[in-house]
Every structure is written in structure tokens, then in C-alpha cells.
């Protein structure tokens, strides 16, 4: 099963007023490795024309990006209330 198919099994209740993960784009602009783009299983981090694009809305709350970014760019918080990803199958 492809990752896109697995992700399509998830439900999300997106909190549009609060991004539980933020990145410091000033740090990302000079990043030498872009590890986050390889590490995130939900592909929340992508490069568009060489610039980092981050979208918290598809996050599966695994915490990998905090560890993968060794440059101190990622700030991670728990989602608020009943927001975030909902796992339907285990
Ligand atoms: S989040 Fe971290 S690893 Fe990803 S581009 Fe920014 S500095 Fe680099
Ligand atoms: S917590 Fe996991 S799914 Fe969410 S952005 Fe970070 S690596 Fe991606």
C-alpha cells in the first residue's frame, strides 16, 4: 500500500486558528540538508523552487520532524482540544 493510500484512511479535524507546528523560515533558508523533507511520513515538508513549504494540516503528530531538524527550526506543540489527526484503524 502506498503512503498516499494509507494517509487517505485518516480523518483530520484541522484547527485553522492554531498551527501546532511552526518553522523558522529564516533558519530554513540557509538549511544545508533539508532533512525534514525526507523524514516526515505525511510529506508536510516539501521544497518548492528551492524554498521550504510547510503545511501543518496534514500532520500525523509523530514528532519526527523535531528530531530530524538539527538546526532548531521546528517548534512543536500538542494540538488543542479535539483537533488534529484521527486514526480510524488502530
Ligand atoms: S525544518 Fe530544519 S531540516 Fe527542514 S529545512 Fe528547516 S532547518 Fe532544514
Ligand atoms: S510531526 Fe510527523 S507528520 Fe507531523 S510534520 Fe512532523 S514529521 Fe510530519
TrEMBL record:
Coiled-coil ranges (or none): none
InterPro entries: 4Fe4S_Fe-S-bd (IPR017896), Fd_FixX (IPR012206)
UniProt name for this protein: 4Fe-4S dicluster domain-containing protein
Domain of life assignment: Archaea
Domain 4Fe-4S ferredoxin-type: 50-79
GO MF assignments: iron ion binding; iron-sulfur cluster binding
Keyword Iron assigned: yes
Key words, A-Z: Electron transport, Iron, Iron-sulfur, Metal-binding, Transport
Organism: Oxyplasma meridianum
Amino acid at each position: 500500500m502506498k503512503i498516499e493510500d494509507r494517509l487517505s484512511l485518516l480523518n483530520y479535524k484541522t484547527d485553522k486558528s492554531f498551527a501546532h507546528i511552526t518553522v523558522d523560515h529564516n533558519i530554513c533558508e540557509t538549511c544545508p540538508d533539508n532533512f525534514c523533507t525526507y523524514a516526515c511520513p505525511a510529506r508536510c515538508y516539501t521544497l518548492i523552487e528551492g524554498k521550504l513549504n510547510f503545511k501543518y494540516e496534514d500532520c500525523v503528530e509523530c514528532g519526527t520532524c523535531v528530531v530530524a531538524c538539527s538546526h532548531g527550526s521546528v517548534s512543536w506543540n500538542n494540538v488543542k482540544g479535539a483537533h488534529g489527526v484521527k486514526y480510524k484503524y488502530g
